[in-house]
């Protein structure tokens, strides 16, 4: 099965599941913004024609899109191929790490710009897919793809850091109006003829897919998805959400939604992917391997839902990381939360195999390379695997200091960091030191983050040994027992 990293790429032979387990790193703390009236954009579907009409709020020779992640498989930008600027004298191109609108003559970009879009499936590196495509023609568009900010010149994009968290930039989220000539759009679980919203971070649905509400979770499931899988997702999602709530309290925000799309029964493929946004889990399935009930597909789908649901408490609308390079805090934490939840809900779940995969992947991806900069290499999986390994370390320290598990660690973070909602690296490592009374643990993790080591297995073995995580060394490999 191929699992697409949800914002988590975990490869299994013949089976892939990719999940936005939110994700690889996604901007969770906004940049510092100089505000005035926001940019306005009208997103409209008229039959097969999709347009985004911008009303820019100032004169500028170039505008950069905040969300400019690359396609995962090709590491190429998606907008230049999928968007076409219809306004004369304006071009869309990749400059540095950003997709940029610029004027051809170097003067200000016209205040009114029309873009013609071709929504399609596309898995991005550590960001939300621009569109979810349903088998009946329904399409869901991600709101954040339309946000942009002005530049003093197109060349200025080359000097921008990849991570804009805390960087002072002008502008901010666009005020978006959504409409469909064919009928109402679905926005946050409600059908509306037209809706205008600012900074909502969600998917807006164009089409007739039906919504079901039950057990505290609203679901929109592609009618083409094999029924056995849709039924399972509809049952398991509220179960795992209820377990998290029992351990960490009710999730913040409105009633959560699950949106599941189906690409179709592509030959020789079994694939899943997705992401989580405030109040919304999105998933996509593809391949002939999903047509009939399969225990492996079911196990990965449950784990995937567990990971994404965990982000309601640690990630999208719970505690957030401070900088993108600290995504290991939320992604690895969500991985470990999913493992512990499935362990509690399914007695047959193979806990050791899942955690061993985390250890092996962390060793592979941290060898000779600093984990903090993994995103620059396109190795976002390092945040998930190493974050989960370090989650085992802090969980072990918690058990040694008075009992409990990783959920008790997260609950303590909630109590300590509830004011700003940010769980920083210093706060995470500080809590590890308080629990263990051993500052060398934080020092070893910092070395793996900032410098890298030739033999991560040796460092991980020392971390496990000092915190009581059961393992053995076999030919230099750390094996959990």
How are the elements arranged and paired?
Blueprint: E1 2-3, E2 9-12, E3 15-18, E4 32-34, E5 40-46, E6 49-55, E7 62-65, H1 79-82, E8 83-85, E9 90-95, E10 98-103, E11 112-117, E12 131-133, E13 139-142, E14 148-151, E15 168-170, E16 175-180, E17 185-187, E18 190-192, E19 194-198, E20 203-206, E21 211-214, E22 217-221, H2 227-248, E23 257-264, E24 271-277, E25 280-286, H3 295-310, H4 328-345, H5 351-366, H6 381-402, H7 406-416, H8 425-436, H9 439-450, H10 456-467, E26 471-474, E27 477-480
Parallel strand pairs: 1-3, 1-24, 3-24, 4-15, 5-16, 22-23, 23-25
Antiparallel strand pairs: 2-3, 5-6, 6-11, 7-10, 7-14, 8-11, 9-10, 12-13, 13-20, 16-19, 17-18, 17-20, 21-22, 24-25, 26-27
Describe this structure in words.
This protein has 481 residues and is of the alpha+beta class. 30% of the residues lie in helices and 26% in strands. The chain contains 10 helices and 27 strands. The protein has helices spanning 79-82, 227-248, 295-310, 328-345, 351-366, 381-402, 406-416, 425-436, 439-450, 456-467, and strands at 2-3, 9-12, 15-18, 32-34, 40-46, 49-55, 62-65, 83-85, 90-95, 98-103, 112-117, 131-133, 139-142, 148-151, 168-170, 175-180, 185-187, 190-192, 194-198, 203-206, 211-214, 217-221, 257-264, 271-277, 280-286, 471-474, 477-480. Strands 1, 2, 3, 21, 22, 23, 24 and 25 form an 8-stranded mixed β-sheet that branches. It has a 6-stranded mixed β-sheet with strand order 8-11-6-5-16-19. A 5-stranded antiparallel β-sheet has the order 12-13-20-17-18, with no helix packed on it. Strand 5 (40-46) and strand 6 (49-55) form a beta hairpin. The longest helix is centred in the middle third of the chain and has 22 residues, at 227-248. It is globular. Residues 5-35 have low confidence and may be disordered.
